[in-house]
Amino acid sequence: MAANADTVSLHDAVTNRIISELEAGRIPWVQPWASSGTTPLGLPQNAATGRAYSGVNILLLWAAALEQGRPSQRWLTFKQALGLGGAVRKGEKGTMVVYADTFIPKTEQEKAKSSGDEARRVGFLKRFTVFHTDQCDGIPCVEPVAAPPGRSEVLPHVEAVITATGADFRVGGDMAFYSPSHDFIQVPPQEFYFEPINWYRTKLHELGHWTGHPSRLDRDFSGKRGGEGYAREELVAELCSAFLCAELGVVPTVRHADYVGAWLEVLKGDNRAIFQAASLASKAASFVIGRVT
Hints:
Layout: H1 2-23, H2 33-36, E1 45-46, H3 56-68, E2 74-76, H4 78-83, E3 87-88, E4 95-103, H5 106-115, E5 122-132, E6 136-137, H6 156-165, E7 169-171, E8 177-179, E9 184-187, H7 197-210, H8 228-248, H9 260-269, H10 273-290
Parallel strand pairs: 1-2, 7-9
Antiparallel strand pairs: 2-5, 3-6, 4-5, 8-9
Helix pairs in contact: 1-9, 7-8, 8-9, 8-10
């Protein structure tokens, strides 16, 4: 019971953090790297293992890096800092991240043995505290990798990723959308955008929807426009676009502020929604990048 209560409190803590950002007029996954001048573009990375953080932890660490003015996206635990021969400086305050997994309770194992059915797995969340390498002494310095240029009209490295997906892109009209029934993406010509870079963010957003086709990651597209299901899928695509932009060095200015109200309704109605959306978006972004050979 205590473990379940802790999971609920974690869902509430993270969800309330995202809600407060949205209500303040800030979209946590559209970060102003270009104007901050301190925190570089990129996905948060564990400084000890080299692995990128995923899901909702991306949002938590992006927000922390910007608030604290950190010079990189490198984080690690207290023990990992010691393992690298360094140490967290006394008095430094850590940042919360979460770990999600499943396990089979003993009661479920016993039920499965007696009934012959498959044991039911139960999800759980654990909280961890990480510190930025800037909060540590003795950590080997790693120069941040310069992000690819993000404000030119043609970005060959992004075009290469888009082409590698094999998605059916059609250029024309004055609307951007993905058609699940016909499995194609349409975007207006790049000349229609006040800032050409936003054409790429739009294409990556629609690619996020494209990953949900039944032949790929098989997400639910049944929600009607303006409804909760529709807002949930838009949130997944928006986060997928943000994660891909960070990985590919695209710094757009589009905000999609028209969806904020719908997202707030979803988040306030379900404290797990941001976790689920961020997890699905991470899988979608990995699917897109994984198409590159």
